[in-house]
TrEMBL record:
Protein name: Major facilitator superfamily (MFS) profile domain-containing protein
Membrane topology designation: Multi-pass membrane protein
PROSITE patterns xrefs: MFS
InterPro entries named in the record: MFS, MFS_dom, MFS_trans_sf
Membrane-traversing stretches: 12-34, 68-88, 95-115, 121-143, 155-175, 187-206, 250-274, 286-309, 321-339
GO annotation, cellular component aspect: membrane
Ranges of residues in domain Major facilitator superfamily (MFS) profile: 15-340
Organism (species): Caenorhabditis latens
GO molecular function: transmembrane transporter activity
């Protein structure tokens, strides 16, 4: 069975990482799309309300209301992270991540409706969107652990962790065009929801948690994936040493690096559209272009670091982590300073 000729040869893991990446991007796009559409929503007077004798769009939210709408996703992400990780450990990534994708698609598709309802309904929907988003990070770990050969781990990580930047490029670009067209801002949510459902259906059809039992993986590729891996990499149901993880200075430092990078990217994705529009008075389409450059300019450099980390054999793994992780994350900070 494993000796049959395949279109993808001995590289089915590339298909897995690409569809996984698209799923990550889609869930993240659904999370950040409203940051851009806030600009368009306040100009939609299809439904209005009277405020002190002045007609105002019901979608023109106050700063306090926007705060609740944005924070609801953050709370959903925080509260959903641990339960979803437990599901991943117990059942693998295939069904839990698919379920999160369906939840993300549904909440995104319902957002235009919820935006016209009471604030409590809208906030609750955004909270569920945050729960779905919390599935992204654990999915990265599972896919890398199960499908990445040890000598390709860095490039897998660079690819999958670029989802925030790529999501910002796609979402801001697409939303800018749609908002400025006859379709209107609501169709940005509908199209994102449809795309999300599509990529997750593909995911659940082709993804398996164990490449050993996947008929599309050749013997040669399986050997490459599992070469020099420990039992913890290969076996399912291993006990997770949560206490050791939470008290490890190394893990805490890695988390701090990830936190600073992600929080900066999310802050820019959240507030830059409003700043560019309200303060700098940029055109909507130009805003999407600038945001795309800001959030993605570091990606080529990150892939160069990942490639060098995987291929260089004359320095230790520890030294490579020190050098290339510092360069990859540090360049993000430098790029934001330049744009500032």
């Amino acid at each position: 069975r494993r000796t049959m000729i395949r279109l993808w040869g001995n590289y089915f893991r590339i298909i897995i990482v690409l569809i996984s990446f698209l799923c990550l991007v889609s869930v993240c796009s659904n999370y950040i799309i409203i940051n851009f559409t806030f600009i368009c929503m306040k100009d939609d007077f299809s439904q209005t309300t009277d405020v002190n004798g002045t007609l105002k769009s019901i979608y023109d939210y106050t700063p306090t209301e926007k705060k609740y709408i944005l924070w609801a996703v953050a709370f959903g992400t925080m509260l959903g992270t641990f339960p979803i990780n437990v599901l991943y450990v117990r059942y693998g990534a295939r069904i839990p991540f698919f379920s999160a994708g369906v939840l993300s698609a549904l909440t995104t598709g319902l957002t235009p409706w919820a935006a016209g309802q009471k604030m409590g309904i809208f906030v609750a929907l955004r909270f569920l969107q945050g729960v779905a988003y919390s599935a992204d990070f654990a999915a990265i770990g599972i896919v890398i652990s199960k499908w990445a050969p040890l000598n390709e781990t860095a490039i897998f990580i660079a690819t999958l962790t670029s989802f925030t930047s790529i999501a910002s490029i796609i979402t801001n670009g697409v939303s800018g065009v749609i908002c400025d067209s006859s379709l209107g801002w609501k169709w940005s949510f509908y199209l994102h929801a449809a795309a999300c459902l599509t990529v997750f259906i593909i995911w659940v059809l082709i993804y398996r948690d164990d490449p050993t039992f996947h008929k599309s993986v050749s013997v040669k590729e399986l050997g490459k994936i599992q070469k020099n891996k420990s039992e913890a990499h290969i076996k399912d149901g291993m006990e997770v040493p949560y206490k050791a993880i939470f008290t490890s200075p190394v893990v805490l430092t890695v988390w701090l690096c990830a936190f600073t990078e992600l929080s900066t990217l999310i802050m820019i994705a959240t507030y830059a559209p409003i700043y560019f529009r309200s303060v700098l008075k940029f055109d909507i389409k130009i805003i999407g272009f600038y945001l795309g450059i800001m959030t993605a300019i570091h990606i080529p450099f990150r892939f160069v670091c990942a490639f060098l980390s995987d291929k260089m054999k004359f320095i230790s793994e520890l030294a490579k982590i020190h050098i290339f992780n510092t360069l990859a994350v540090g360049f993000v900070g430098l790029s934001f300073l330049v744009f500032g």
